[in-house]
Amino acid sequence: MVPPAATASTSLQGSPQAPASLGSPSAPAVKDPAKDTILTPRFYTTDFEAMAAMDLRPNEAELEAICEEFRKDYNRHHFVRNEEFEGAADKLDPQTRKVFVEFLEQSCTSEFSGFLLYKELSRRIKEKNPLLAECFAHMARDEARHAGFLNKSMADFGLQLDLGFLTANKAYTYFKPKFIFYATYLSEKIGYWRYIAIYRHLQKHPESKIFPIFNFFENWCQDENRHGDFFDALMKAQPDTVRGFTARLWCRFFLLAVFATMYVRDVARKEFYEALGLDAREYDKEVIIKTNETSARVFPVVLDVENPRFWVRLERLVRNNEALNAVEAADGPAPIKALRKLPFWGANALEMAKLFLMAPIRSEAFQPSVR
Ligand SMILES: [Fe+2]
Ligand SMILES: [Fe+2]
What we know:
Layout: E1 29-31, E2 43-45, H1 48-52, H2 60-72, H3 94-125, H4 130-156, E3 159-161, H5 163-169, E4 172-174, H6 177-204, H7 217-237, H8 245-268, H9 270-275, H10 280-295, E5 301-302, H11 308-329, H12 334-357, E6 361-362, H13 363-366
Parallel strand pairs: 1-3, 2-4
Antiparallel strand pairs: 5-6
Bound molecules: fe (ii) ion (2 copies).
């Protein structure tokens, strides 16, 4: 469940009578949600009837085994704040503080987005598909914990996300179940690789551990790994989602969309990675290569991320994105700005098309041992 602290402070927003201490850890201010762009985390909804009617028999034993793992709730006692958090926020310089809070906000929003989707799914399919509903309920439990833990860290900086407001006001993207599978599978697996890469790096460089939340990443990422395994098993229970020509095209599309979005976003926020002693590009490269390799366990094709042209094109997206941000930041009427953005949007569309058309790699060739 979402901790009540995460939703209780709506009335303080913009209040002229707000106490002087508002914005302190004891009375965190409600942060306005970041503006929605193509790069911000999305909220999803789907066809609940189709989900409820899903036949799990082709892979029921594996799904049952995964559900049994979820029941064990390995991280039941993991997300407990300790004395290390006391005063930790005060040690950050203003620039690091700013980029770190952005990281917390974005992570909290995407964890919370997972919670909402899984919770709603478990509620809506409970009667007709109890095994699937139970798996979703366990995953919603994990994501609520993750989001709540991140939101508590935001409170250390005197800010808090109003998750109730987000639930009611954020736009929901509708995806057919199979698209939910591709998107959430990738976001769980990429989440695993992102968290574990940071954790391992900080183990080697403890002097770069700017906040105690990173101590929690090792067990945390195991939750994401299990969630990803669940979607892997679910796609194998619905083999048409990962078989045939259309499935191959969609898998390529989702891999590319997820990788390109992450790369452009992380390079634009490279200061956060610098604060941890990481190079955003190198970090993303590692995460993308690992996620691509993992995806070959279930997707019929993966991307040729070893091809240097793949990275050259991602860099062009980065530059176009920088140009778009510069236009946005400049003064001028909206229609003129849109006109000035047009060539960069066009260039982005062209690069994405070229990336999409790059020859993929058949997964049998990539992961022969598990296929
Ligand atoms: Fe999570
Ligand atoms: Fe997850």
